[in-house]
Design goal:
- This protein is of the alpha+beta class.
- The protein folds into two domains: 1-40, no CATH class; 46-144, Immunoglobulin-like (Sandwich), CATH 2.60.40.790.
- The protein is built from four helices and seven strands.
- The protein has helices spanning 7-18, 21-29, 42-45, 141-144; strands at residues 50-54, 58-64, 73-78, 81-96, 99-114, 125-129, 132-138.
- The strands form two sheets. Strands 1-2-7-6 form a four-stranded antiparallel sheet, with no helix packed on it. A three-stranded antiparallel sheet has the order 3-4-5, with no helix packed on it.
- The protein starts with 6 loop residues before the first helix and ends in an 8-residue tail after the last helix.
Length: 152
């Protein structure tokens, strides 16, 4: 059986859609967007890495936030979303033998982790130690129960 569209025409149409001019233009607008691991963009530069684990009784959120103090970090819970925010302000000046070196680093981040209503946020506990923020959120009684749904 023969196709209505010859193979060559199919290949050309597929290639033309892959290499269309608007697609190539987008590559040149932001070439590093296609390789975020190799070239982190400014919008992700200050986001902490977060691990979320869950067991039968609680949800644990660990965020890597090195070089900050507890007073610079804010943890809030609103509408089923845990928000971790912080701002780092660091100024360093070094004067030695007629030289002066002044270095500033500032950074702000806000990370939101949707957890829903399955956790008891009133009993949440947070601890910051060695650059890692650990937030423990106990599960509600309803969330601890496992319901099995029968399949026909």
């Amino acid at each position: 059986m023969t196709s209505l569209i010859p193979w060559r025409a199919k290949r050309e149409s597929a290639a033309s859609s892959l290499w269309s001019s608007d697609r190539l233009d987008r590559v040149w607008e932001d070439p590093f967007r296609f390789f975020p691991e190799l070239f982190p963009s400014d919008e992700f530069a200050h986001l902490p890495r977060v691990d979320v684990t869950e067991d039968k009784n609680e949800v644990t959120v660990k965020a890597e936030i090195p070089g900050m103090s507890e007073k610079d970090i804010e943890c809030t819970w609103h509408d089923g979303v845990l928000r971790i925010r912080g701002e780092k302000k660091c100024e360093r000046e070094d004067k030695k033998s007629g030289r002066q070196h002044h270095e500033c680093s500032y950074g702000y981040f806000s990370r939101e982790i949707p957890l829903g209503d399955s956790v008891d946020w009133k009993s949440a506990a947070a601890k910051y130690k060695h650059g890692v923020l650990t937030v423990k959120l106990p599960k509600t009684e309803v969330a601890r129960k496992t319901i099995t749904v029968k399949i026909n």
